[in-house]
Amino acid sequence: MQEGYSVSLCCKALGLSRSGYYAWEKRPAQLITNDTLMLYREAKQLFKESRYSLGSRELMKALRKKGYFIGRYKTRTIMRKLGLVVRQRVAYKVTTKRDERHLAAPNLVSMDFNPAQPNQVWAGDITYLRTGQGWMYLSVVMDLYSRRIIGWSINKRMTSDLVLQSVKQAYWLRGHPKGVIFHSDRGSQYTSKKLKNALTKLGIKQSMGDVSLLGQCRC
Length: 219
What we know:
Blueprint lengths: L1 H13 L3 H9 L7 H16 L6 H10 L6 H11 L38 E11 L2 E10 L4 E8 L4 H14 L7 E4 L3 H4 L1 H10 L2 E4 L11
Parallel strand pairs: 1-4, 4-5
Antiparallel strand pairs: 1-2, 2-3
């Protein structure tokens, strides 16, 4: 009697029915082997490291590389059991757009990717990165003489300010050189009046081609 009262009291506190409790009690316990437990841990870790982007096919491949003999059906079952739900990815974004209202600078570099000394030709480009905070845009500046990245800037927005900050960093790190040619594509971030005026004040000449030199030369 006391046992039945205790069960009723616990079920009431947990919001469960007595019939549900007794049905659970009659079911045989499911034992998880150590190998299965290790598989679950590995799957969760790989999924977390991918920033929740691995589907069942890619997770299966990753587990196989870890030495697990596993198929896609079992991988899908594990994902459902562990609650591994792929987060929706942001669609690919074009990094530069042309704005016909802006005037492009002439191509001062042509196909000459090998300047004779540092701080003659810098090349700029914009790419994007997937981070824990979402998609971020990265603007870089490279000295084509050394093939070193000498300036960079990262932001959630792809603007002329993003480019300007990376150029300013290169300008400061290189000791305020004069007569540098800054080459880029004709994206609106590079052809903006704001960037043109800022580069002129720094004594930097703009040069533009159909695509950035970073996409043409072998670095």
